[in-house]
From TrEMBL:
<protein>
    <recommendedName>
        <fullName>Helicase ATP-binding domain-containing protein</fullName>
    </recommendedName>
</protein>
<dbReference type="InterPro" id="IPR027417">
    <property type="entry name" value="P-loop_NTPase"/>
</dbReference>
Length: 874
């Protein structure tokens, strides 16, 4: 039961007070409010019904009883003093219209005078006088025999000398059921042609707005913001009232929305009203999937459970959107003998379905007893069959956000545990972007006696972290990089160096040659580079480098290697090589017969005739291979084990001929302690790559974002979609008006800035800026499958369009795999890229906003379904 407050006198009486005496109670009763709970509701009923205590259903502020000081009411009362009706007749009507009485009492009847009062409990308190009066008036419409003074919610009622009825289950009347049954009663009383005139009269009296079908405008919304948004630019709803949706669990995120207006005489009854569409939102075959997806519906369908009126109405509002859904519902309640003693109540549902047919399906949380344990969406239909191009929050995904201070403290504890651990394995700490990972690392460098190597994603970030460390007094050396000299070198020299990198050969001979020849443009730079490299290699203290260099370094002299950001995503997965078949054949001709590499190439050429993916053994790299002048990464080819045969296709335009792609093996040193700090780290992926027994995973608490992430998932925003809609970025930029954008690199550049998917990690130049992130960064399917194949998982499955999936607390449709491992790999890659892009704004600590245009939902996103940023459909 919902506890409720009521005004009640302390005076017991064995007689009815007259009008003059009742005026005294106007003063006394307002100052005596009682809280009624489960353990004292019977006592309250006895006080009023048997001991004659005067009461008022409402409570008041300042100890004064008036409409101006009205505080709230959760009781509805009616008084009857007539020879023409009886309690039995009134109770029969309440049962017919599913308005359960809490209690009724004899109000000191004398002789043939039939005087009694009935009291209803509302499922939530009315703190608005307007709403309280509307509910009281709806009762008066249904029970015109009641005393006319009962339309006043501040009326004081005489007590009684006998309780006629008490329902100790303390049933409650809901706002929407009261208005709906009032409409049904008026139709039954005045006929289908004329009853809406009475509803219009009710609207004029109470101010309750009517919809286009001349029915009361009331709905259930999931939060205040959503409810108010419904009323923007709604001329019929200038004064909406939100009240708590009440039930025993007090679901604070649900609200009744009653629309009120300053009434105009515009509700004329005419025969040319707008007719609603006869087409339902869901086809009849939807009914077949409901049983498997919804436990409550399955029990309803099989007759295993007798549903309450609230549950029945919740199911009905969902079935009302399905072809043949109303028929299925009515056949089910008939087959399960819901109203065997009151046959007329079956007919009520025909009207209920008429009444609710333009209403939204009720959310599961508003009626279903299983909502706390079922991974449901917004309602039964969206749970069973999500709409296309919509992302829906799972209602009970149990997100738990903490404050920034608590999140920081939890991360620091995890970081300290990892640092202090003696286990020389991978310690992976998942923590939010902008939480302060770099600061924690620098504080460790300042205070520890350990020799620490830091690895960051880019050269730019490497230099930034080094400067921050030195500013804190930390003695640290940074690794040099030839890529940092690119802009200062002649193009032909850089082309030579880049070719050496691509073919897996050392650039040192090219540097030594330039130095020996005393090349004016290069020698000085290369000498400086080699000097810095020697200093870095010989340093006996803290050092900082990039992810890329880390994979080829000897780290044995360091006590600890700390990796900032996700090394798997930044380096392991991108470490791939593609070689045209024609080049493999040319390479084979340059090798001696019987050479191990030639034999491996022969096996590759045999495998591609029958397999897309295949495995070959590693071979040793022979020094003689270094003299072969071909643009093939021979060292990687020797080490490679996992191969993918690829043909040019319309979906991938990077190939002009048949090729093989393979993963360049990256080997990390054993018996080394690594700590990886990342917002995108995935436990399963880490265990796949580093070994299940070689990973300790820490998940830090997540803080609520300070900024806001708005997500628009109505369009897929894949590369192919955006190529087919070349003006879409321009449309978005015109709508948003934001300066900064992150999207695909190779698409037409309609925006400022150099950031794009693939080069966002760690960049801080857009901190506290509003950003549009546009795109869903899918990878070519062969990349997902090659990575999965290398990890030992199955790959015999294809991408399945519009697959219903659940991820990050959302349910949505996506082009993905049924295979859980392949899907995990795909989602990991897409999510990592999106998180890095969104993370550039530093929403965790900055009061800015990011608009994400993608059908892949991120955590803490505010989903903007059905929002069209373009006035013209794309």
């Amino acid at each position: 039961m919902n506890e409720f407050n009521v005004s009640i006198s302390k005076i017991s009486s064995k007689r009815e007070f007259n009008n003059k005496e009742m005026e005294m109670f106007d003063i006394l009763i307002a100052d005596n409010t009682e809280l009624i709970k489960n353990d004292n509701v019977r006592s309250f009923v006895e006080q009023v019904g048997s001991k004659g205590h005067v009461f008022c259903p409402s409570t008041f502020k300042e100890g004064l009883k008036s409409k101006d000081t009205f505080e709230q009411s959760q009781l509805l009362a009616l008084h009857f003093d007539s020879k023409e009706t009886s309690f039995k007749e009134i109770k029969d009507r309440t049962e017919q219209y599913d308005l359960p009485i809490l209690f009724a009492y004899d109000a000191f009847s004398i002789g043939s005078r039939n005087k009694f009062s009935i009291v209803f409990l509302k499922d939530s308190p009315s703190s608005s006088l307007k709403e309280a009066e509307a509910m009281q008036n709806s009762l008066m419409m249904m029970f015109p025999e009641a005393d006319k003074s009962c339309d006043d919610v501040s009326k004081v009622y005489n007590g009684g000398n006998k309780v006629l009825y008490f329902d100790d289950t303390t049933p409650a009347v809901s706002v929407d059921m009261l208005f709906m049954n009032m409409s049904l009663h008026l139709r039954n009383r005045y006929g289908a042609t004329n009853y809406k005139r009475k509803i219009v009269e009710f609207s004029k009296t109470t101010g309750v707005a009517l919809n286009e079908r001349k029915l009361p405008e009331i709905s259930i919304v999931e939060n205040f913001t959503e409810g108010i948004k419904e009323n923007i630019n709604d001329k019929n709803s200038q004064n909406p009232i939100m009240i708590d949706y009440g039930n025993s669990e007090k679901l604070s995120n649900l609200k009744y929305l009653i629309k009120f207006e300053d009434h105009e005489d515009k509700y004329s009854i005419s025969s040319n009203q707008k007719k609603p569409s006869i087409h339902k939102d869901y086809p009849s075959d939807t009914l077949e999937s409901l049983s498997s997806k919804c436990r409550l519906y399955r029990e309803f369908e099989l007759g295993n459970k007798t549903l309450s009126q609230r549950e029945l109405l919740g199911v009905a509002t969902n079935l009302a959107k399905v072809e043949t859904g109303a028929t299925k519902f009515k056949d089910t309640i008939s087959a399960n003998s819901y109203y065997s003693s009151r046959k007329e109540k079956y007919d009520n549902w025909s009207y209920y379905f008429y009444y609710i047919k333009d209403k939204y399906p009720r959310p599961c949380t508003s009626f279903c007893s299983y909502h706390a344990t079922c991974p449901h969406g917004k309602n039964i239909l969206s749970t069973s069959k999500p709409k296309y191009h919509q992302i829906e929050k799972i209602a009970n995904c149990n997100d738990h956000w903490v404050g920034l201070d608590e999140a920081w403290k939890d991360f620091k504890e995890n970081f300290h545990s990892a640092v202090m651990s003696r286990d020389k394995i991978w310690h992976v700490i998942k923590c939010q972007t902008a939480l302060g990972k770099t600061q924690a690392i620098l504080e460790l460098l300042r205070d520890t006696h350990l020799r620490v190597l830091i690895a960051v994603p880019t050269n730019k970030l490497k230099r930034e972290v080094c400067e921050r460390a030195k500013a804190m007094g930390v003695d640290i050396i940074v690794s040099p990089s030839l890529h940092e000299l690119k802009d200062d070198l002649p193009q032909n020299v850089w082309d030579d160096i880049e070719n050496l990198y691509e073919t897996g050969r050392s650039p040192m001979p090219r540097l030594n040659k330039a130095i020996a020849e005393d090349d004016l443009e290069c020698a000085k730079l290369f000498k400086q580079y080699k000097r810095e490299l020697d200093e870095f290699n010989n340093m006996d203290g803290h050092a900082i480098t990039t992810h890329r260099r880390l994979t080829s370094m000897d780290v044995s002299k360091f006590d600890l290697v700390i990796i900032d950001e996700d090394l798997i995503f930044s380096t392991v997965i991108p470490s791939k090589t593609t070689v045209p078949i024609s080049k493999l054949k040319k390479l084979k001709k340059k090798l001696n017969t019987g050479d191990p590499l030639a034999a491996k190439i022969v096996k590759i050429l045999k495998h591609i005739k029958k397999s897309e993916f295949f495995t070959l053994s590693e071979i040793d790299y022979d020094r003689s291979y270094s003299g072969i002048k071909m643009t093939v990464n021979i060292p990687a080819l020797c080490d490679a084990k996992y191969f993918c045969y690829r043909k040019p296709s319309n979906f991938e335009n990077d190939l002009t001929e048949d090729c093989v792609s393979f993963i360049n093996p990256i080997k990390f040193q054993e018996k080394t302690k690594y700590i990886m700090l990342s917002a995108t780290a995935d436990k399963d992926i880490c265990e796949y790559c580093f070994g299940e027994d070689n990973v300790k995973f820490y998940t830090s608490k997540e803080a609520k974002l300070t900024g806001t992430l708005f997500q628009y998932g109505g369009k897929p925003m894949s590369r192919s979609f955006m190529r087919d809609n070349p003006g879409i970025i321009g449309q978005i930029k015109k709508w948003s008006g934001l300066e900064h954008t992150i999207s695909f690199k190779k698409l037409p550049n309609h925006y400022k800035g150099d950031l794009h998917f693939g080069n966002c990690s760690g960049c801080d130049i857009l901190k506290n800026e509003n950003i549009d992130v546009i795109g869903t960064p899918h990878q070519p399917e062969w990349i997902y499958k090659l990575f999965s194949y290398a990890l030992g998982f199955g790959i015999d499955t294809k991408l399945k369009p519009n697959t219903i999936v659940t991820h990050n607390g959302y349910r949505f449709r996506f082009n993905t795999y049924d295979d859980k491992n392949l899907r995990a790999i795909q989602f990991y890659m897409i999510e990592s890229e999106l998180e890095q892009a969104v993370g550039r704004a530093r929403l965790l600590r900055c009061e800015c906003a990011v608009n994400l245009f993608s059908n892949f939902p991120l955590r803490q996103a505010t989903i903007m379904n059905n929002f069209n940023y373009d006035d013209n459909e794309i």
